[in-house]
Amino acid sequence: MIHRTLPLFSLVTEIRLKNQLARTLLQTYVGPHASEQILDGATTRGSGTTVSAAIMICDLRNFTLLSGSQHRDRVIDILNDYFDLMADPIEKHGGEILKFMGDGLLAVFPLNQPNACQRLIAALTAAYESSARGTSAKFPVQFGTGVHVGEVMYGNIGSQRRLDFTVIGPAVNLASRLETMTKQLKRPVLISADFVASAECAAQTDCLGMHNIKGFDEMIEVHALKI
């Protein structure tokens, strides 16, 4: 009887293993929340939901110079060190990394989770402290970060045969613009006034005044996180 029923158990075991493998692969490549959405059937182009979230976009400094002066394997090692510095505290404090973009990173902290904005600040502070302690003097890992809070569209975007599960919207655009401004204003973390109000973190920032930001009609009040 055992020999007769063994093929049935083998079939069930194979299905369970494949399901677990698919879940693990999706979590590895798109993150825990997006993987659950995809497994639940959110695979239609244009499908998505609007969520309120704290958004952070990071970018590695001097990556072009680094790529041209170092061996490919060394560049990959430096990139991996940088992403480890960012990813570990983001995940520890409840954020979700949506994508790595070359030498950049996009992460969100949904506001339906308690203290989302404060946890984003804690993650950033930990990342910059780790960077100061753990990188070599010859190839220091330096990065700029833009932070904002607002509504984003969270869902599938792409071509008919290739989709990307990500967030878009003016709030994401502003976070990206603030990250770019870190080079101009020479401060590693720039934060919008909306985020400062949401996080109640004015004491942790320096107000840098009102700035014209490309793509936005009104001037934006910009703050720098004290790091």
Structure, described:
With 227 residues, this protein is of the alpha+beta class. The protein contains 7 helices and 8 strands, in the order H-H-E-H-H-E-E-H-E-E-H-E-H-E-E. It has helices at residues 2-30, 32-39, 63-69, 72-92, 116-134, 170-185, 193-199; strands at residues 48-60, 96-101, 104-110, 143-158, 163-168, 189-192, 205-211, 220-225. Strands 1, 2, 3, 4, 5, 6, 7 and 8 form an 8-stranded mixed sheet that branches. It is globular and about 80 Å long.
Task: State the main characteristics.
single chain; 47% helix; alpha+beta; 227 residues
Brief characterization of the structure:
The protein has helices at 2-30, 32-39, 63-69, 72-92, 116-134, 170-185, 193-199; strands at residues 48-60, 96-101, 104-110, 143-158, 163-168, 189-192, 205-211, 220-225. It is of the alpha+beta class and 227 residues long.
Distance, first to last CA: 69 Å
Indicate the mean pLDDT.
85
Report the count of strand segments: 8
Q: Give the proportion of residues in helices.
A: 40-55%
How much is the radius of gyration in Å?
A: 21 Å
Contiguous runs where pLDDT drops below 50 for at least 5 residues: none
Main sheet properties: 8 strands, mixed
Please state roughly what percent of the residues sit in beta strands, choosing from under 5%, 5-15%, 15-25%, 25-35%, 35-45% or over 45%.
25-35%
Structural class label: alpha+beta
Shape: globular
The arrangement of helices and strands along the chain is HHEHHEEHEEHEHEE
The DSSP helix count reads 7
